[in-house]
Amino acid sequence: MNEELKGHLDSLILAVLASEPAHGYAIMQELKARSGGAFDLPEGTIYPALHRLERSGLLASGWSSASGRRRRVYRLTRRGRTGLESRKREWRAFSGAVDAVLA
Amino acid sequence: MSYIEELSRELSRRGIGGTTRRRILDEVDDHLRSEPDAQERFGAPAAIANEFAAELGSHASRRAAFVAFAALGVAGAVYAAAFVSQAFANPPSETLAPALGAVALASLVVAPQVAFVAGALALVRALRRRGRAIPTAELTVLRRRTLVALAAGVATMVALALYAYEFAPSLAGWWTTATYASATAAGLLLVTASVPAARAARFRPELAGSAGDVFDDLGVTSGDPWRLACAVALAVGAAVWLTGIVQGDALDGLVRGILEAAACLAGFGALGRYLGLRR
Lengths: 103, 279
Known about the structure:
The complex is a heterodimer. Chain A contains 4 helices and 3 strands, in the order αβααββα. By secondary structure, chain A is of the alpha+beta class. In chain A, strands 1-3-2 form a 3-stranded antiparallel beta sheet. In chain B, helix 1 (about 5-15) packs antiparallel against helix 2. The interface of A and B includes residues 23, 48 and 52 of A.
């Protein structure tokens, strides 16, 4: 499950950030919540993915201070939003085809 | 040793330093403070550091290949301009080449071809592996291709300047001056383009996977690299021969074609394994 999840981690992160900007910990919690606890990767693996998405221009980030703590908050860029829509379309086409075969 | 200290040490071990390491540590520190048992679910510091190194090393190596190819493009334009414009600057007879002039001439034939082939191979592999972490063995091949391309590019520019110097008495002054200036500028550009490659080499990830061969570059199923090299050498030799026929000297074209094909195979034999063209 975890290995399969790694292949889709970028899309899942983009989907979580589509609703609102968040820091790494909050993204991980949201992933677990939305998947009903099924997505349970080592939490540290999210950070290389966040940095990769930022380098690709799909995310932007900045430090923010809350309750005396510095947190790196990530948000979707315009390119990230477009990328997410395209990934959603690809996934639906793929999963639809798999469903059709398995049915 | 705390988790953050251990992660810091692992990041250093993988070649991640400076502001990047600081940022990673700050983010992880904030994450671990969010919950008392967050550390247990975070993953081993060595694995996290390795994942960062794989991502950063892959990105930096791909970027270095793109930068190198762009710089080689400029050097290629300088090389082409020098030889096209030489026709208007009293070109010397190659048979009267002084010793160093002969070395320069030989280098001007071999080095640009090595630079182009290695640079193009680096570019192709960088494009094929875009957007994902590259296995360590393949990363080594990508870096070698980039460095060989840049080194051969610099050798070409040095040979061009040496050629201008050796044949200065018979060549027009404007051509030698322009060639010194453009070859120096392009040479410096190539040296500058090696900085991203040197930076990329600092990252030391460990990611399993093979380096692949020329068929991974071409995106086709595997085959015999030597057979492909022979076919390419034959095609290149035939093209040179045809050029000779078009220029009105079929025999000279044939000799040059045979030499070119032999050089092609020699290059494949000497550098093929090093540049990841064969296993």
